[in-house]
Amino acid sequence: MDLTSEQKRVVYTLGFCGLVSAADNWFVSPALPAIANALGVAASAATIVLTAYLVPYGLLQPVCGTLGDRFGRLRVLHVIVAGLAAGTFLCAVAPTLPLLVAARVLTGCFAAGIIAVSQAHVGDVVGPERRGAAVGVLMGITFTGQGLSSGLGGIITDLMSWRAAFACFGVLALVALALLWRLPRTELPAGKKVAEPAAATPQGSFFARAARIFFGSHRAIFFVACTTGIVFLGVYGFMGTFLSERCGLGSTQAGLIMMLYGVMCLVGGTVSGRIGAAHGPRGVIYVGEASGLLAIATLVLVTATGAWQPALLAAGALGFGYILTQPTLVSLSMDADPAQTGLCTGLIGLGVFAGGGVGSALGSQLVALGGYDALWLAAGALLVVQLVLGGRALATLARGGSR
Prior knowledge:
Helix content: over 70%
Number of helices: 15
Order of helices and strands: HHHHHHHHHHHHHHH
Shape: globular
Structural class: mainly alpha
Largest sheet: none
Low-confidence stretches: 187-199
Oligomer: single chain
Radius of gyration: 20 Å
Number of strands: 0
């Protein structure tokens, strides 16, 4: 990725902001048994804490993306990162599960736009020719936080408490806010000044504009985003509890295994540009989906044997597959309406993260009814449907034949 020092500074700073927003949710996964025990609820009931963050995190991404288009991306980022920090500290002191859920909803509302607005701002800064690779690095850094936070969250939970873990991630959000304030208001991609906010105001109501993009000629991209969130994030959200219940691992052990997700996110973010150059965006998505199927097959093996070692491969394959798929969808979505890239990337976030919240909610029902085998079977079947139908639709789009 051939970027100037200032462009790299923007990518790495916004990547850290995204890292904190991803970490703020996913460190909770290995801490769920401790949260459930402290608040006197079943572990499966405590998964609502994941859904409470992911659903507003996904639903409000198009709104935050649009606000970034209108009022300026950095200005909006300042507000939502500050809200993320405040909400996380509230979670640390919540005395009951309902109040913790309410605090998670509030935190998810503020955090919603961090990734979508950052993606659009990076696209502005680096220009369309470097956009795919830059967004891949941005998301690799972001979801490294998802994996690393699982290990750190588990360690802090075991050594201190889950409340201390929330407080630590609140401090990280304050650090992200301080770094964000140091970025200049404008950048110079390819010798041209980027204005903030955008000069042209799109016509029509927010919902009308969002519907035109979501159901328009690029609708296949948004369909794949929805199923990606349901499968990849839904499955990952259950790994901590699964490893505890099936393999007898503690929060630290489960979290360390799940850290491989973040490591492979970083690896995938660095190689996605090369895979795309060789095979195109559709090829990158196919490799990502194949990695997801490998992860699910490995989790079936863990369920059958009770051995924790194959879970290392599962966590790594999930991270690698996810980070190849999501940023590629983001880059493709910006072509749906170049005048509203914030809204376009926000709609991808809506599909992915709201899908993750739906996946967590449906997953808890599947586990209650049929155990983890039912969850892995449903996730694998949905991923095969995505691979077949989504692949065909993306192929049609690439040929310019979609309506």
